[in-house]
Specification:
Keywords: 4Fe-4S, Electron transport, Iron, Iron-sulfur, Membrane, Metal-binding, Transmembrane, Transmembrane helix, Transport. By secondary structure, the chain is mainly alpha-helical. It has 24 helices and nine strands. α7 runs parallel beside α11. The longest helix has 31 residues. It starts with a helix and ends in an 8-residue tail after the last strand.
Length: 530
């Protein structure tokens, strides 16, 4: 490894170590003004203030001690409010302190109470963590320009990082822990949000939330690893353009534009995020926000609906899944850049494919039923749909699919199951587009079986778990609903056997002719359903 790469790795690891230490470097001091500002329900405020009285004005040097006392106070407050509401002769009813609301209160009270060196020297710590980490990553990546482009036989399966080794498992564990904290325990990472306050205030005018911090890291990961992707595949114009595309759409549409909209007092909106991937698009609070924001909000609502019923089938007919999954989608963008080193870990077995089909289409059905229930409640006021509580239905979907699957498993399992775990097994939009691609699309990957030498590069590096070699050996067009058209299989083929095409529908399920020693046999489509 060249000295510049070693230096880059050292800087990157130092930045990660500092970033990991930051949540333990703060102090916490709660004031009555903070409590009144966060707990806006006057009935709940009376109980919460009473339980927090001993914490007010006290300085905590331990985050765990502070949050423990906060947990006890809110737990006691919730119990007392519930007991009060059960009294028959009570004067008024106080809104119960539900677990979700209590979690929000604890997060914001921790966010406001955070003090210490991070707040006093935010710019310095920002440079020492995110800035230094970005610099280190580029120093490690840029020397790869001296190597030949493309994928090489470099013992990737024997690497401790990319071949199910201890480094890969460690990275996966850290990613899983990060997402657990982000989704369910954001009060433990408030210093990270303070760290990015200067950037957030400059873009949106607001303090950074956990989602701004996450969006910033997410975007930087795609940009930095996108440079790596371009260097690696610089011999392919297709890969350069599609990598630049996901870098642009993530930076502009997913990160910058929504934050700028907030600054302009408009709804937060990602114009490229499509239902059912954007599963909360039809939630009541979203619809009310759109309809109450004038012409801009109405345009957002109509835009989102048109994407679902017009853009998806139209673009998928002409270009298959690749127009979105490999060129636009933020999930796909992270998978294609940050997740590229792990693409060869995708399971190619027939069993995995069967599980994939059941899981991804089940999630799509779940998303459709959940959304139908949400809309039913919105228009009728009834909280029950098909004998199911619609709030419970959407909360369950948000927890299981929106958080646990898409985040914790979807990214945390990169070093364990490959970079497209979410796209293969869980993304409902991928399932929707895949159905169109499979049955009504011009896209396919054509093969020239006579040139195939069965090297297996195509199957090895297929991130979607498709046994591409099986098709190539038989000269069979690849028409699979799971294929995202990334084109890596064609790039790694030494004989040019594979080609991505958007031809006429006729002949898309072409019948291969296999020439044996003594016969010529034409096979039907059913012989090769895999």
């Amino acid at each position: 490894m060249p000295i510049i790469q070693k230096a880059g790795m050292a800087l990157f690891l130092l930045a990660i170590a500092l970033l990991t230490a930051i949540p333990f470097m703060g102090q916490y001091r709660l004031t009555p003004q903070m409590v009144e500002e966060v707990v806006t329900d006057t009935g709940q405020l009376e109980y919460v203030s009473a339980e927090l009285e001993e914490m007010l004005g006290k300085t905590y040097s331990s985050k765990f001690a502070y949050i423990s006392d906060l947990d006890d106070a809110f737990s006691t407050s919730a119990t007392k409010i519930q007991d009060y509401n059960q009294i028959d002769n009570r004067e008024t009813e106080v809104n119960n302190l539900e677990e979700y609301m209590a979690g929000q209160y604890k997060f914001y009270l921790t966010r406001k109470a955070t003090t210490g060196t991070i707040q006093e020297h935010t710019g310095l710590w920002l440079l020492l963590t995110i800035g230094l980490g970005t610099l280190g990553a580029f120093l490690y990546i840029l020397p790869k320009l001296g190597l030949l482009p493309g994928i090489k036989n470099d013992h990737i399966f024997h690497s401790q990082n990319t071949g199910l080794g201890w480094i890969g498992y460690t990275i996966g564990t850290l990613l899983i822990l990060f997402y657990v904290l982000l989704y369910w325990y954001p009060e433990y990472i408030t210093e990270w949000m303070v760290l990015t306050d200067p950037i957030s205030k400059r873009i949106s005018g607001n303090e950074a939330s956990q989602w701004f911090f996450y969006g910033l890291l997410y975007t930087l990961a795609i940009l930095v690893m996108g440079v790596r992707m371009i260097i690696k595949y610089r011999h392919s114009r297709y890969h350069i353009i599609r990598t630049l595309s996901v870098m642009f759409f993530q930076t502009a549409f997913a990160f910058m534009i929504p934050e700028i909209l907030i600054r302009l007092n408009q709804p937060y909106f990602d114009f490229k995020n499509i239902w059912p991937l954007n599963y909360n698009f039809f939630f009541d609070y979203n619809i009310e926000q759109f309809t109450s924001s004038g012409s801009v909000g109405l345009f957002m609502l109509i835009w989102g609906i048109l994407l679902v019923i017009v853009a998806v089938p139209l673009f998928s007919y002409f270009y298959g899944k690749r127009w979105y999954c490999s060129w636009v989608c933020g999930c796909g963008g992270l998978a294609e850049t940050l997740g590229d080193p792990y693409r060869q870990l995708s399971n190619k077995s027939l069993k995995a494919w069967k599980v994939e089909r059941w899981m991804i289409h089940s999630v799509l059905v779940f998303a459709v039923v959940m959304t139908a229930g949400v809309l039913y409640t919105y228009f009728t006021g009834s909280g029950t749909f098909l004998f199911i509580d619609t709030y419970t239905l959407r909360a369950t979907y948000g927890f299981l699919i929106g958080a646990a699957f898409a985040g914790v498993v979807g990214v945390g399992f990169y070093p364990i199951m490959g970079n497209r775990v979410w796209c293969r097994f869980g993304c409902p939009l991928a399932a929707y587009i895949g159905i169109v691609q499979r049955f009504k699309s011009r896209f396919r990957i054509t093969t020239n079986g006579g040139q195939c030498i069965s090297c297996g590069n195509c199957s090895t590096y297929c991130e979607m778990g498709i046994d591409v070699r099986w098709y190539a050996q038989r000269g069979q067009n690849i028409v699979r609903s799971s294929c995202v058209g990334c084109g890596v299989c064609a790039s790694v083929c030494p004989r040019g056997v594979l080609k991505l095409e958007n031809g006429e529908e006729e002949g898309r399920f072409g019948k291969p002719i296999l020439i044996g020693n003594n016969s010529v046999q034409v096979f039907s489509d059913l012989d090769y359903i895999r």
